[in-house]
Amino acid sequence: ACLSSLHDSEHKHRKRVILKAFSREALQNYIPVMSEEIRAGVRGWLEGAPRVLVYPEMKRIMFGIAMRILLGFEPAQTNRGTQEQLIEAFEEMIRNLFSLPIDVPFSGLYRGLKARNVIHAKIEENIRKKMAKRDTSDQFKDVLQLLIEHSQKDDEPLRLQELKESATELLFGGHETTASTATSLVMFLGLHPEVVRKVRKELQEQGLLSSDAQENKHITKEDRKST
């Protein structure tokens, strides 16, 4: 079953499997992916309209990060078009999460299940791609890869539907709350320019700031207004 429906020892074991992907070493491996996704998002802000709606943009960025870090999607699988399709499906599923159990066309449950199937189809595509890779010993393992290996342990049958449900739970847990937190961060940074300068300095010292002068320029209220 998916993580939320497990109990006792199986829940603890599955949780330990997932926590391997959040060790200190694992988090350090995520930095390049996170930087790439964030830079792409900020670049889009600079090239786009003069006003940025931060929360929707943060949801898109965090969804892309979650798809790559938690589920191991390749960059080509998380282009903007695919992201928008999946985000729309994900939000439709969330909106109808607690609908009345009436599965008829145009009902909340019907729309929610239809949206879930879109997400599951994309996740299944990635699961099958991962299963086709025999040797992953030298590769960094995302959460989905760890869950796949857990399901295959001791020659247990691979439970595809359970993997898809667990992957969807990971997206649910790592998307909305993170986007909300990141939006608050942007708001407070906008209110405290002295903190922005300290953050910029620390990023430069750690080699995490882009070498692109356009991305590194100080964005004042006149340059870009965030809402």
From TrEMBL:
GO terms for cellular component: endoplasmic reticulum membrane. GO terms for biological process: sterol metabolic process. It is found in: Endoplasmic reticulum membrane; Microsome membrane. Its main location: endoplasmic reticulum. The lineage of its organism: Eukaryota, Metazoa, Chordata, Craniata, Vertebrata. The keyword Cell membrane does not apply. It is a peripheral membrane protein. InterPro entries: Cyt_P450, Cyt_P450_sf. Pfam families: p450. It comes from the Eukaryota. Its cofactor is heme. SUPFAM superfamilies: Cytochrome P450. One of its GO terms (molecular function) is iron ion binding. The keyword Membrane applies. Residues 214-227 have a biased composition (Basic and acidic residues). Residues 206-227 are annotated as: Disordered. This is Cytochrome P450 26A1. Gene3D superfamilies: Cytochrome P450 (1.10.630.10). Keywords: Endoplasmic reticulum, Iron, Lipid metabolism, Membrane, Metal-binding, Microsome, Monooxygenase, Oxidoreductase. Belongs to the cytochrome P450 family.
